[in-house]
Specification:
275 residues, alpha/beta, Rossmann fold, two-stranded antiparallel ribbon, 20% strand, globular
């Protein structure tokens, strides 16, 4: 990853030294921003966004199993959350803004709830507070496990099957072919077990009980494609109990808003940060 000053590899000590589930690249000066990418994408996805927010100290996260960071044992999401908490504490980050895309938005909500006095703003980029409720309505979290015929199939995919699978996935999530190819390459290089089992962790999440406790301003950016106006209504339902929120809809964008509509995205972000 380019254009940053130095790399912070966080090591957690719990009796014995344990491998961290995050790596963080830091640059710049000013009030801090923590950038949290979505599932299976490294911190590089934020490269153009980082360039649009001068005057801040930026901390760009990549998760274990993705972007060349060594995988860790499951369960995975809880380790990410714990290591991010320790990172914020160890770096003594205050007046911190959290920006999270997709699963990174879930982590941002967890961190905002944990640090009510350190976080000043949150930007949620097309992240559902409970993805399972939309994708698998009525299915309880405890019904989901790592071991399943579907997961076994994903773990066993050969190169051709994986390529076809990721082609379909990326075409649904971004518009431009060059962005599809870039994200596909990141997903192809991901640790397969993390890609499959980590998604189970993501489906189990439900941040909705935390929402009433988060009092800071939250900007929720919503992609309008492929679901149309219903996308905004779904987000409003998901975040109904969040006290201090603002929604903005990019009607022509798919899920990777920062890639599909970079001008609109940067305008929304810089306006919110300046308020």
């Amino acid at each position: 990853m380019k254009n940053y000053l130095f790399l912070v590899l966080l090591t957690i000590q719990t009796g014995l030294f344990a491998q961290s589930s995050i790596s963080v690249i830091t640059s710049g000066m000013g009030e801090p921003i923590l950038f949290l990418p979505g599932f299976a994408t490294p911190g590089e996805v934020w490269d153009s966004t980082v360039q649009s927010v001068p005057g801040h100290q930026v901390h760009v996260v990549t998760y274990a199993g993705f972007g060349g960071v060594a995988p860790v044992e499951m369960p995975w999401y809880g380790k990410l959350k714990s290591d991010l908490i320790q990172y914020i504490e160890s770096q003594q980050l205050d007046k911190l803004t959290l920006i999270g895309h997709s699963m990174g938005g879930n982590l941002a909500l967890d961190l905002a709830a944990h640090f009510p006095n350190r976080i000043q703003k949150v930007v949620i980029v097309d992240a559902l507070a409970c993805m399972r409720e939309v994708m698998m309505p009525g299915v309880p979290a405890e019904a989901l496990g790592y071991e399943s015929p579907y997961n076994d199939q994903l773990l066993a995919m050969d190169e051709a099957a994986q390529s076809a699978y990721l082609d379909q996935m990326t075409k649904n999530m971004m518009t431009k072919p060059e962005d599809q190819e870039q994200v596909k390459s990141w997903m192809t290089s991901a640790d397969r077990k993390t890609f499959v089992y980590g998604y189970v962790d993501l489906l189990k999440l439900d941040n909705r009980p935390l929402l009433p406790t988060i009092k800071v301003p939250v900007l929720i950016l919503v992609a309008g494609q492929p679901f149309g106006p219903g996308a905004l209504e779904t987000m409003k339902n998901q975040y109904s109990t969040l006290p201090n929120k603002t929604f903005a809809l990019a009607a022509d964008s798919k899920h990777y808003l920062m890639l599909d509509q970079p001008g609109w995205f940067h305008e929304q972000l810089t306006t919110f940060l300046a308020q």
